[in-house]
Amino acid sequence: MSAIIETRGLVMQFPSTRALDGLDLVVPPGVTGLVGANGAGKTTLISLVLGLLKPTSGAIEVLGLDPATDGPRLRAMIGYGPERNVLPDDMRAYDFVRHFAEVKGLPRDEARSRSSDSLYLVGLGEERFRALGTMSTGQRQRVKLAQAIAADPSFVVLDEPTDGLDPMQRDEMLNIIVEVNRKFGIDVMLSSHVLEEVERICDHVIALDAGKLVAQGTMGDLAGASGGVEVELVELDDRPGSVDDVVERLTEAGLTVQRALTTLTVGGRPDDELFDQVTVAIAAAEARVKRLGVRRRTLDDVFTDDVVTAEYAGRVGGDA
Ligand SMILES: Nc1ncnc2c1ncn2[C@@H]1O[C@H](COP(=O)(O)OP(=O)(O)OP(=O)(O)O)[C@@H](O)[C@H]1O
């Protein structure tokens, strides 16, 4: 299936900040998490996707269109939940959602029924006639989501949809977002600075740091790549020191080993060669294995490893 978003060498230079610095990325269908710390460039990228900003250089294509020239057409096709609190306090949730559905081109009757449906989907069916100013942060975040999906878009972009929510509200919001994708086939890109929530619900991840791409791929790719091998050994009464022996042999073989009691994490790409090296060391030390497998990296690891690598490469003159 073709990409939802594709960029090549995308640069956004503000007078004093290079917010995006040569991004080559692909957002496929599904739920994509755009992650990065504050100031990483997430909102800037979203603004370029929606055609609200024009890139300084490079190319961006969204749903096969150029946002810089097809912005209005694209914005009619994409649902958008902005980060900031943009809801008018004195308007009722239902009127707000219906208004935007009509602005997006839905006939009045359809806009009415879709607004009610979307508000029910986000769990605000009973509350839909309440004024927005009387709603909690969690409810207001849900209204923004209902507004984003009301006009039946094929793609929605949600900027920090869990911002300001407590852990329970956050879980509920994440579940609704998954439902939007799985039940209604709407592709989603959400930005977040909370890695754990992206890990939980996203099929695909784009990780940014200071305007540069740190990593992109499926969660499976990122978690498996160079996560190393994890092996849990059994300390045998008749082979005291066998775990120490394994550590020593692996270290002598030039591998990085971290030990927590009888569990060892051996760094490197978890390919056949690494597994062979680990099993040979275990056999030579006559140790017993309880568990052996690929160590799954978390997004935290992706940031730590890859940002460090990028910084190091920058110091020594590389182009990472
Ligand atoms: N209109 C603007 N003019 C000048 N600088 C800007 C503008 N918009 C963003 N920036 C700068 O560009 C960088 C990226 O900002 P951006 O808002 O895209 O980051 P973000 O990842 O969305 O952060 P946050 O999570 O805090 O929203 C920041 O250094 C920010 O100060």
From TrEMBL:
Keyword Nucleotide-binding recorded: yes
CC annotations in GO: plasma membrane
Annotated InterPro entries: AAA+_ATPase (IPR003593), ABC_transporter-like_ATP-bd (IPR003439), ABC_transporter_ATP-binding (IPR050763), P-loop_NTPase (IPR027417)
Molecular function as annotated in GO: ATP binding; ATP hydrolysis activity
Superkingdom per UniProt: Bacteria
Gene Ontology BP, a term: response to antibiotic
Keywords assigned by UniProt, alphabetized: Antibiotic resistance, ATP-binding, Nucleotide-binding, Transport
Protein name: Putative ABC transporter ATP-binding protein
